[in-house]
Amino acid sequence: NTCLSRMTRGEKRLARRLEALLDDDYLCWYDIPVGRKNRYPDFIVLHPARGLLFLEVKDWRLENIKKISKTRVELLTDHAGRYDLAEEIEWTSKVKGDGAGYDIRSFDETQDRERFIEVKTTHSGKYQPFLISENEMAFSLEHQDQYSLYRVYKMRKDPRLFMLHGRLSDYVHLSPSVYRASFS
Q1: In this predicted model, what pLDDT tens digit does every residue of 42-68 receive, in sequence order?
Q2: Which end of the chain has less Cβ packing within 10 Å, N or C?
Q3: How far is Cα 183 from Cα 181, in angstroms, rounded to an integer?
């Protein structure tokens, strides 16, 4: 439900069908970066025995098909998408180091602006506490309309994901756990 506001009509239809029709042993992710170039398939479906399925949803109607063959579909469209932004996605923490306040700089093509993603992983369960720096907290406040935390849990055996969008303090209880010690 947290992703529905970012989905197209076709993506919402598919998401509802996946939720209704897939058994509980399937995992499904929406719009997460994949691979060295951080590509964003619309949906990734994982089944432990059957493997991975990457789905790209195309919102089209029958009257929008210009030409179709066994190997190709050509659509009439009113826009070409923002494929130019794919090359601009940056794994910031790898390229510039860990001090930016986020890990990945991506783009929201629907609003034509940057998205900032912080990723926190654990081998433990969903509600395992995690560490977040003062800089990451400040960044989530300053850029709350563009900020998301991706929480990946059960990383080792059964990877799962949920996302928190906006100010982190709206979702989690924060308690100080690290102090700076200096000599006077």
Answers
A1: 899 998 888 889 888 876 666 666 766
A2: C
A3: 7
Cβ count near 142 (within 10 Å): 12
Q: What is the pLDDT of residue 78?
A: 54
Whether pTM > 0.85 for this model: the answer is no
Asked whether the predicted pLDDT for residue 4 surpasses 90, the reply is no
Whether 55 contacts 41, CB under 8 Å: yes
CB-based contacts of 98, cutoff 8 Å, min separation 6: none
Place of tokens 């990734």: 44
The CA distance from 21 to 44, in Å, is 15
Annotate 70-93 with b (16+ C-beta within 10 A) or e (fewer): eeeeeeeeeeeeeeeeeeebbbbb
3-state SS class at 35: coil
Q: pLDDT class for 136, splitting at 50, 70, 90?
A: very high
